[in-house]
């Protein structure tokens, strides 16, 4: 069914996103309602990659459950990790090492980007949010929140272990060096939005100049943080190298974080009371991911630098995982450009990336598209400037195909689910 030539699926998804933007105090209700309406429509009048009815929905869920499970495990686990990190009092020591003016905020964003290069971007954003909460006494400008998310996504864009999308590229045969090229754009973007956001924040709430007296590190709690992060890193790298098929079949990265969390609960008890709020934010994101997975997207525009640029803007409202899978299936892209676009582009809207949703579970004032775009305009401009830098420094050098040395070919929700997507 179409309306003015547009499939009704897309219209329903667009209305869902519009509802999230307009009713930011009721985002969970809007997202869940939109997901249910789209699912019912496709069960009654459409299909799921050629499979009709409830069976088609079940096939889609079987194809997507690993991604959903990993997201749920990471969002909930890293919410508790960020609390452990803040309560370890490491953040109280930062004023001793950061400049007392806007440059302190800028260096904090650079630190977040560095952390994200070897950690999941959700963890980097949550840790960055915890540090900002202490450094700015709980008063964080929405523009700086957008910059924290952008820094975490920029840091992961050039690393094959820094973001789900770049890991997908690695598994599909894209060389780590090709992905690393994304840092040319990410670095330029970070320099631009980081400078402006840090000045915004300094004018809104100056950085703490001196750390509180008598601060003592809680080393066991810091040890819990380290073990949780090491569990995620070890699971991601080891299985991607030796058993990528297991990552396709089970949400092992999310599970590894929870195993480490539960094993260390005897050292320091997590703040379990944070879970209900984090769970609501997680259900919101998972609902939007499912909405995107149900869209009848079968191909992207022809591979070119304008289409790669457009991927970044699309990923601000559309799940970047299926976008990446479609690009890999289609071929002909410069993968450094794609890594930058899909990795960084979601920062432009708060629900455009899992890092943004996770951070807004901590800072509810960020759940306004209008406030995010107004305060974080520098992120969108930084994205374009970074893309221009990639064109000027490296140029568009597409590759027709990528090999698949680590895993079977990638499929997407747009085709029958015969193999699982990374």
From TrEMBL:
GO terms for biological process: sodium ion transport. Signal peptide: none annotated. The keyword Repeat does not apply. GO terms for molecular function: antiporter activity. The keyword Oxidoreductase does not apply. Keywords: Membrane, Transmembrane, Transmembrane helix. It comes from the Bacteria. The chain crosses the membrane at residues 6-23, 28-45, 65-85, 106-136, 142-161, 182-199, 219-238, 250-267, 279-297, 309-328, 340-363, 375-396. This is Citrate transporter. It comes from Ramlibacter ginsenosidimutans. The lineage of its organism: Bacteria, Pseudomonadati, Pseudomonadota, Betaproteobacteria, Burkholderiales.
């Amino acid at each position: 069914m179409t309306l003015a030539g547009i499939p009704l699926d897309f219209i329903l998804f667009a209305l869902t996103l519009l509802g999230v933007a307009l009713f930011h105090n009721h985002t969970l209700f809007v997202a869940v309602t939109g997901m249910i309406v789209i699912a019912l429509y496709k069960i009654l009048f459409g299909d799921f990659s050629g499979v009709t009815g409830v069976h088609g929905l079940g096939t889609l869920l079987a194809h997507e459950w690993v991604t959903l499970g990993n997201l749920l495990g990471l969002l909930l686990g890293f919410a508790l990790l960020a609390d452990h990190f803040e309560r370890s009092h490491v953040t109280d020591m930062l004023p001793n090492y950061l400049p007392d003016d806007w440059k302190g905020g800028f260096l904090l964003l650079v630190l977040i980007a560095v952390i994200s290069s070897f950690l999941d971007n959700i963890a980097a954003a949550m840790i960055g949010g915890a540090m900002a909460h202490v450094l700015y006494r709980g008063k964080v400008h929405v523009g700086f929140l957008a910059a924290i998310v952008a820094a975490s996504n920029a840091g992961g864009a050039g690393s094959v272990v820094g973001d789900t999308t770049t890991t997908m590229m690695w598994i599909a045969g894209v060389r780590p060096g090709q992905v690393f090229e994304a840092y040319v754009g990410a670095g330029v973007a970070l320099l631009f939005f980081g400078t402006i956001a840090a000045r915004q924040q300094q004018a809104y709430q100056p950085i703490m100049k001196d750390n509180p007296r008598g601060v003592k590190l809680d080393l066991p709690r810091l040890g819990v943080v380290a073990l949780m992060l090491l569990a995620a890193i070890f699971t991601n790298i080891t299985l991607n190298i030796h058993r990528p098929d297991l990552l396709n079949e089970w949400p092992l990265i999310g599970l590894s974080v929870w195993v480490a969390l539960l094993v260390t609960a005897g050292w320091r008890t997590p703040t379990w009371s944070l879970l209900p709020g984090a769970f609501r934010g997680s259900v919101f994101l998972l609902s939007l991911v499912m909405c995107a997975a149900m869209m009848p997207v079968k191909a992207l525009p022809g591979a070119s630098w304008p289409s790669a640029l457009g991927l970044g803007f699309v990923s601000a409202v559309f799940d970047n995982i299926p976008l990446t899978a479609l690009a890999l299936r289609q071929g002909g892209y410069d993968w450094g450009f794609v890594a930058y676009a899909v990795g960084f582009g979601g920062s432009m809207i708060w629900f455009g990336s899992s890092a943004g949703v996770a951070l807004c579970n901590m800072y509810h004032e960020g759940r306004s598209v209008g406030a995010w775009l107004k305060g974080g305009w520098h992120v969108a401009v930084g994205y374009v400037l970074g893309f221009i830098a990639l064109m000027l420094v490296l140029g568009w050098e597409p590759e027709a195909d990528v090999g698949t040395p680590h895993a079977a070919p990638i499929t997407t929700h747009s085709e029958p689910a015969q193999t699982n997507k990374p």
